[in-house]
Amino acid sequence: MSKRRRLKHRGVYYRRFTQTAAAPGTLVTQPEAEPTRVKIMSYTADSFEESELRPGDLGPIQQRRPGHTVWIDVQGLRDHALIQQIGAALGLHHLLLADAVNVGQRPKVEDYGKVLFIVVRLAQREPEHGFAWEQMAIAIGDGFVATFQETPGDCLDPLRERLRQGKQSLRTHGAGFLGCMIVDGVVDGYFPALEGVGEELEKMEDEIIDAPSRAALHNIYTLKRELMAMRRATWPLREALSHLMRDGHPLLEENVKPYLRDAADHVIQIVDIIETYRELGASFIDVYLSSLSNRTNQVMRLLTVMSTIFIPLTFLAGVYGMNFDTTKRGNMPELGWHHGYGLFWTISVGLAATMLTIFWRLGWLSGIGRDQNEK
Questions:
Q1: Residue 145 neighbours by CB distance under 10 Å
Q2: Looking at the chain, which residues constitute the CATH 3.30.460.20 domain(s)?
């Protein structure tokens, strides 16, 4: 779990590149990689066995029994030697192993003859951390499925429980069906993550309209980057599954194809949701600018009204504030009148009230302070 939280802070999915001019199939050393654990499930329609591979004992992999389907689940990619031994026991190509260990591969489907290789990305999301991305590589062969993932823990526990209980005739099918169910489980794990994104978009819309701020704008761009990363994880998978349905593969029996189409349909739905959310995120920027401009206009309108009212008052105060002694000639008799001060304020207040009445009748005061009162 701690590794996943580090991935959340990255926000995007980085690829591990080999050194320049390195031999094809070179495995990249990852200092932060989790320790390697290998869990094995072996089953038929009437039997089920579950175990964990002990160090130095490859017997459960090398001595697979006929008629059994074996799921070799490799969790953690630190032990390259053990992974290469597992690959040799299963007859996996060294380029396949390199793509499984050197994480950050583009989601894809590759045909290695007797082995069908699929790369997908697991997604997990928490509002305070964002998305956590993890690569899962799936190798489907004759009677076995090998999965390689970066950390322990994923969204496939319901599938494992169904295998233990033998529900829905899951154990009556072969390795191709199991591989299809793993892909479908990974794809279905995107829906809860997207549901959280949808809830945040609703809250973000209210926040932008009511109180646009730099923090709200930052959240919009953060969410757009997350959706872009999710698009990069699902769009290639959509293409890969479409090619696989069109071209087929000997390991995928006829009764597996409807389930493969179902998984591909889920990917299409996810891509559509992502595109919708991305458009909403882009429109929120326009809403933010419009809301900010509207609030600025409200402030400017209020300031303009106040300035307009004080312009004649300033004029009157300026006239009677001049330092000319004109009372001897009688040009400004109000300066020496006992009630002149009161008359000045009466005229000023009356003028301000008259202007406010005129502004109100013209509709210039409508909307001023309405946003604050509605809150």
A1: 27
A2: 2-289
CB atoms closer than 10 angstroms to residue 292: 15
Listed in sequence order, the residues at least 6 apart from 322 whose beta carbon sits closer than 8 Å to its beta carbon are: none
Count of all residues that appear for the chain in the document? 375
d(CA 161, CA 164): 5
| 92-104 per-position pLDDT tens digit | 999 999 999 988 8
What does the pLDDT look like over 41-93, one tens digit per residue?
A: 999 888 888 988 887 777 778 777 888 899 999 998 888 989 999 999 999 99
Partners of residue 69 on adjacent β-strands? 43
Classify residue 6 as exposed, middle or buried by CB count within 10 Å of its CB (0-12, 13-18, 19+): exposed
Banded model confidence at residue 127, pLDDT cuts 50, 70, 90 = low
Q: Is there a contact between 118 and 44 (Cβ–Cβ < 8 Å)? A: no
- Taking CB atoms within 8 Å and a gap of at least 24, the contacts of 200-203 are 200/127, 201/277, 201/280, 201/281, 201/284
Closest residue by Cα to residue 118 from 87, 94, 146, 158: 146
Say if CB 118 and CB 108 are below 8 A apart: yes
| Residue 124 DSSP SS3 | strand
Structure confidence at residue 1 (pLDDT): 37
Instruction: Identify whether the C-beta of residue 123 lies closer than 8 Å to the C-beta of residue 136.
Output: no
> What 8-state DSSP symbol labels residue 51?
E
Report residue 119: phi and psi, to 5°: -115, 125
Residue range 2-289 in CATH 3.90.226.10:
no
**What average pLDDT does range 148-172 have in this prediction?**
85
Residue 357 structure tokens: 């009445």
- DSSP H helical ranges for 320-365: 340-362
Looking at residue 260, its amino acid is L
Note whether 92 and 146 are within 8 A (CB): yes
Q: What is the pLDDT of residues 296-315, one digit of tens each?
A: 777 787 778 778 777 877 87
Closest-CA residue to 313 (of 303, 321, 324, 301): 321
